[in-house]
What does this fold into?
Amino acid sequence: GSRLLDVKNLKTWFYTFEGVAKAVNGVSYTLNKGESLGIVGESGCGKSVTASSVMRIVPEPPGKIVGGKIFFHGEDLVQLSQKEMRRIRGNRIAMIFQEPMTSLNPVFTIGNQIAEMFILHRGMSKKDGLDAAVEMLDRVQIPAPEKRVGEYPHQLSGGMRQRAMIAMALACDPELLIADEPTTALDVTVQAQILDLMNRLKDELDTAIQMITHDLGVISEMADRIVVMYAGRVVEEAETVELFQNSLHPYTRGLLHSIPILGSRSRGEQKKLSEIKGIVPSLYGLPVGCAFRERCSRAMKICGEQEPPLYGVSGNHAVRCWLHQDH
Ligand code: SF4
Ligand code: MG
It folds into this structure.
């Protein structure tokens, strides 16, 4: 497919009293039209900051994009003013969050908020905007959309609010939808329904999706390709099937082993096969060498001396680990 997004050597740092946190430190990835990409890693790996950078919503200060480029249709978003970003954000690139109330305003009806997207970006009248809002609610399978359109966010269940947020995000038929842990706060059944919905919409609308999650299980059925991040860096990238069958980075293998066992009924009951021992290193003072080495059972001498480069091991598979330098 044709190239939609091309992130090149992105660096987004935070300047705080404790020092400089290099939250995103030289991240590159691409996304083609209609493709779905998973960005996976533990909390603090830089996956959310990467998304905020693409949306240009990094709080500045303390954050700042200090390097790199974010090409969207060949136009570098890093160079755009906030005014110019407003014609792209919500319109051509939309985002949904773990907590729907991040994007839904409690004092306006669901209908008015969705209609606002059509009024703002499509120049519709209020009445046409509201009709289009009913259609969107129907599209995300909210029952009785004519009634729901007049309700406030607090009148909806958590799962319905998530659907309403998706409806708002997709209102203007964006080319790229960024989803940041969209199902993490939901129970397992509702989580599966929302993922089904997103999968269906992706096929219907041909929207490219960048899905951010700490849970590889969540994106296994959704993503065409997966990027694994650790301590602000990409440590492995591969097509989804390849990553699941032939993961190479010790960190990715650890993540795969910590996917909840299928069939567990609720979040509380979810059992994990194993957790990756140890904690993510502080972004304020990353160690010399491989950032994963304190937690890695395969660490060698060189791992403490030099950071490994990202090795291309086959077609679309790349890994940042000294174990694979001979590929
Ligand atoms: Fe482990 Fe070394 Fe590979 Fe890092 S480079 S993941 S420490 S083997
Ligand atoms: Mg996050």
